[in-house]
Write the structure tokens for this entry.
Amino acid sequence: MFPRYNEKRDSFGTVTVTPGERHTAKVPLGVSDVSALKYYQHAEHGGTNMSTTQVACFGFIRYLDDLDISRRMGFCFRYDIRNMTFSRYRHPVYDYSD
């Protein structure tokens, strides 16, 4: 199930990035998000098998290329509860550009 998008929380807004420039954006987590991740980590360290619990960060980036053609890129990262890290989920449905 996809969560509802919230313009204030789930959008980076309009950003201009010139060729060769890098842009980093941080996504703030809500209190309930942080609580859930802490619970998952605590359960995993306590011996509960959390391997079927899936936490993902996914989204889309829309941009204009050098010819002003509108493009879209999709991305998805899986959260590893044991290591508290994200890794790229390489799948054509979630990780693509057009």
In short: The mean pLDDT is 80. The helical segments are 31-45.
